[in-house]
Amino acid sequence: MTTTARGVDARGVNSPGRAAVGARTLRTDRWWLPPTATTIGLLIFLVYGGVRAFQQQYFFADERYLTPFYSPCVSLGCASEPGSAHFGMFIPDHPLIPYAALSLPFLLLFRLTCYYYRKAYYRSFVLAPAACAVPEPHATYTGETRFPLIMQNVHRYFFYVAVVISVINTYDAIVAFRHPTDGFVVGVGNLVLLGNVALLWCYTASCHSCRHVMGGRLTHFSKHPVRYWLWTKISALNARHQFFAWITLATLILTDLYVMLVARGTITDLRLIG
Amino acid sequence: MSYRGRFRVWRGDADGGALADFQVEVNEGEVVLDVLHRLQATQTPDLAVRWNCKAGKCGSCSAEINGRPRLLCMTRMSVFERDEVVTVTPMRSFPVIRDLVTDVSFNYSKAREIPSFTPPPGLAPGEYRMGQVDVERSQEFRKCIECFLCQDTCHVVRDHEENKRSFAGPRFLMRIAELEMHPLDVADRVQAAQDEHGLGLCNITKCCTDVCPEGIHITDNALIPMKERVADRRYDPLVWLGRTISRRRS
Amino acid sequence: MTETEQHDYDVLVIGAGGAGLRAAIEARERGLRTAIVCKSLFGKAHTVMAEGGCAAAMGNVNENDSWQVHFRDTMRGGKFLNSWRMAELHAKEAPDRVWELETYGALFDRTKDGRISQRHFGGHTYPRLAHVGDRTGLELLRTMQQRIVSLQQDDYAETGDYEARLRVFAECTVTELLTDPSTGSGQAGAIAGAFGYWRESGRHVVFSAPAVVLATGGIGKSFQVTSNSWEYTGDGHALALRAGANLIDMEFVQFHPTGMVWPPSVKGILVTEGVRGDGGVLKNSDGKRFMFDYIPDVFKGQYAQTEDEADRWYEDQENNRRTPDLLPRDEVARAINTEVKEGRGSPHGGVYLDIASRMPAEEIRRRLPSMYHQFKELADVDITAEPMEVGPTCHYVMGGIEVDPDTGQSRVPGLFAAGECAGGMHGSNRLGGNSLSDLLVFGRRAGLGAADYVVGLERRPAVREADVEVAAAMTLAPFDAHPAAAGGENPYTLHAELQRVMNDLVGIIRTESEMISALDRLGELRARLHDVVVEGHRQYNPGWHLALDLRNMLMVSEAVASSALLRTESRGGHTREDHPGLDPRWRHRVLVTHCVRAGADGGVVVPRIAVEPAERAPMRADLLALFDLTELEKYYTAPELAGHLDRVEAQHTEGGTA
């Protein structure tokens, strides 16, 4: 039995006094897989979303389907697709300003400060830590105690805005049933928009801040039966927050892709009614 | 039925040590602790390992198996392949005493820093009335067996010895949450959670929840709600405004 | 040689389980400087294993409950051998002790109106057990641990030192009590302190304290199949014997009817009685609910005769009698033993405990979360889908240190005991749920007794240097006495053999010949313990620790076997195949164990013990009057009942009519 000399780098698990195991981690499983997959998944979404947000075309199909990436369409540029702006046009049309410049930054911040996404990117991008019991590479660590990460605490405001945007998305999905000339119609695109918006609600409602605001902040549930009931329902959703976080990234891309392909004429929207 | 399992067990003390190789008989239905006991009885009578109930209820036999913080008594041998080398080391966030035994006094000193349960003045024993739905959240946290695996795995102190001073760790932040949600506790714990016990250092990467042998949702049910309560108090102007108005009215 | 570490306290509590912590809280609250010494880390004691609940007649669920009913249940469960004064104090004070825990922050499960919920348990007439799911012991222990922290915080605020008046010495083992023959009335003198060693470093430590409270728990680790942890080596029993105190009732060892039987590595781990309280039933390999065949005469009429009535009882307890699955533990353990012996057992030598077929999976997980967890993790069995396999496991020792019921003091001045290591409270058999309340009630009383004793002392007894040297040499003997080359004994081997002897020969069913042979074998082990050798050094060396614990286990095992040999009847936790019946002539006799210091064979390492019968104090008339004469007649001899009120009245009436 030989004795391992303590490494030069006497920090973390190699701090003086702790067992001199030597190896930084003894994990034998593929612990690097989840952070890698997370990185790839998030990058795909960011690249796709970035490209589409600035593309400024193929965002409105069949004179009624508005992609969530352009909702609400408030740029003067939305005039290129009549009927796409449900809430007026007042933002200058500029290649560097997305048409949905009013909502996209907040949606991004909502997800950026989301308790689940924080875990995801702290683990995958920041490697703090990449996996449990795997040492992180940083010499010092201050967590969320200082600027800018202390701003994570304002998550609830982005949640409030996200609720408003979810209402707008819902409105978009509902008005999409009315075709300017054909009247009430139901196409596959309607189902896509509806499915997407339903899952967006699941993600938004399962937010930890929502859970807190609805009832979590109470000490005596028994005195607030309605809010307690709400809290139990939201808690059940909240347990799947991670699932909704990922599934909505996928449905956002798919919904947008569908609208884009129909708008470009690559595919035709199948009408089920009307 | 039984086979010879291959083990690497860290042996040593604060001055140094190394992984030692062993071959030990393993029988059906055994857990890692059984194998270590057989090692003690047959090959290494002085192998130091802390244990007590051997039923996952006391939280004494915390260690790391194949690099993951786990209870020795709750890790069944059947989760490993027969030809797999099973590596057992002490917890790596605390000072080692000997072999698999670590000095966990960090946790006991942190426990002392959390202000105790503060009942309402004038409420006599026997007069406590609490609804079941009101005690359930704190009851979940009181399932804690204090194995300190969450403290061991938390990178805030595991990777940064210097944070031990300012960080209570998941176990004791959860204790604050438990008292904060206790229907009859009258003390205010929110500000101190952030200022004195290091809630802000937590970046909710959930390793504490992952390793908890009791399955307590430490992050979702204790740490994040505490962060939200701190936000209520410190980072939410709406709540601040509402509170100021109601205070003025009263 | 370096100076031995010394500490000076008013009250030294040995053991940090429920009784020890409650005693320490009381002593500290009375203003005394108090120390707690425990073999494990703080908060790991065996109390955490208690699952079902804490019995206290609060009447929250059924208003008919009262201390009198609780008292009657306890005496019946113990087959009228209990120290009636302890049973009385216990029944009267338990509710206050439970309510007190709430002021420390305990969170019990609640009734609809917000009070502490109470559950059914074997032998209790009404739902009586305050509980938290199936982890009540953990809640009690953690609550008291946190209370101690709270008291330390008070001291910190006042003095700047958390440990100014209350300190925990964790992972520290006491090997000997120290007495001062110049004080006190007994031969050995009054308590002066204790000697021990730090497990971590192996260094010795001496405590000077005029009062010692023993709260070391039980003796289960002397048996092979046990629900007890390694700590349960009978330290308090043996320390008290060596210091000059008596043990009583050592023949009564409770085998819990439902321990896990498979896989082998978890054999003995407890399956809470709460499973049966909540609707689980025992079945044999034929699928038959066999407990209906095992209702003993003394309980006839109190339990359901048919499965239908038993099932109705879960819903309507007023109009139905309870299921015999909830008979006192000794009855159920014996029944299971018989079923297995007669070939109707499960594949791994137990019987089936079925809850899966009796309620929805979701409800099982909600009511019995730790049980679900335990079987899933340890045995890979889903209790919501298949029945559990269970069998008897050594669980609790009713016998213990003889103490004064009111103060907890033994016959050695300054030596107190509480909890499992104290004897008398439970008679021949303990009811489930009565141990948690026992440790609260008598933990407090012992702490109070110790505090009063210290305050009333005129002169503090002094530790004698010579005693310290003898104790120190005793602990180090395994290192130097016999070089390994000479073929010394391995402590692990000795321990395994001891466990086998106790399990096979002094287990649930006992016979004279087996116990004689057990005593022979124990004698051999005692001799071999002289030659025990440990490897390595003193720093955290489990082999050494075990070698020292074996001294205590052997002494206590001899006490159990010798007592069991003398008692020629079957009662509660003592079943003699050669004397199967209850014998009223044995009811009023108590078997007292004491230590015989001088002996031809030396007996230095493991001093000899002797067991002698004595008379029990007769029950106070007002307490006796709480029972029907017809019931008492099953247990008492006729002359003993001459003074019972019913009989006196009957005689009056007869006299009036004549």
TrEMBL record, chain A:
This is Membrane protein. It comes from Promicromonospora soli. It comes from the Bacteria. Keywords: Membrane, Transmembrane, Transmembrane helix. The chain crosses the membrane at residues 31-51, 96-117, 157-177, 183-204, 243-263.
TrEMBL record, chain B:
One of its GO terms (biological process) is respiratory electron transport chain. Keywords: 2Fe-2S, 4Fe-4S, Iron, Iron-sulfur, Metal-binding, Oxidoreductase. The keyword Metal-binding applies. Its cofactor is [3Fe-4S] cluster; [4Fe-4S] cluster; [2Fe-2S] cluster. GO terms for cellular component: plasma membrane. It holds the Pfam family Fer4_8. Pathway: Carbohydrate metabolism; tricarboxylic acid cycle. Residues 5-92 form the 2Fe-2S ferredoxin-type domain. InterPro entries: 2Fe-2S_ferredoxin-like_sf, 2Fe-2S_ferredoxin-type, 2Fe2S_fd_BS, 4Fe4S_Fe-S-bd, Beta-grasp_dom_sf, Helical_ferredxn, SDH/FRD_Iron-Sulfur, Succ_DH/fum_Rdtase_Fe-S. One of its GO terms (molecular function) is electron transfer activity. Belongs to the succinate dehydrogenase/fumarate reductase iron-sulfur protein family. This is Succinate dehydrogenase/fumarate reductase iron-sulfur subunit. The gene is sdhB.
TrEMBL record, chain C:
PANTHER family: SUCCINATE DEHYDROGENASE 2 FLAVOPROTEIN SUBUNIT, SUCCINATE DEHYDROGENASE [UBIQUINONE] FLAVOPROTEIN SUBUNIT, MITOCHONDRIAL. Keywords: FAD, Flavoprotein, Oxidoreductase. The active site is at residue 329. Its cofactor is FAD. Residues 495-593 form the Fumarate reductase/succinate dehydrogenase flavoprotein-like C-terminal domain. This is Succinate dehydrogenase flavoprotein subunit. It comes from Promicromonospora soli. SUPFAM superfamilies: FAD/NAD(P)-binding domain (SSF51905), Succinate dehydrogenase/fumarate reductase flavoprotein C-terminal domain (SSF46977), Succinate dehydrogenase/fumarate reductase flavoprotein, catalytic domain (SSF56425). Gene3D superfamilies: FAD/NAD(P)-binding domain, Fumarate reductase/succinate dehydrogenase flavoprotein-like, C-terminal domain, Succinate dehydrogenase/fumarate reductase flavoprotein, catalytic domain. Residues 10-436 form the FAD-dependent oxidoreductase 2 FAD-binding domain. GO terms for molecular function: steroid dehydrogenase activity, acting on the CH-CH group of donors. Pfam families: FAD_binding_2, Succ_DH_flav_C.
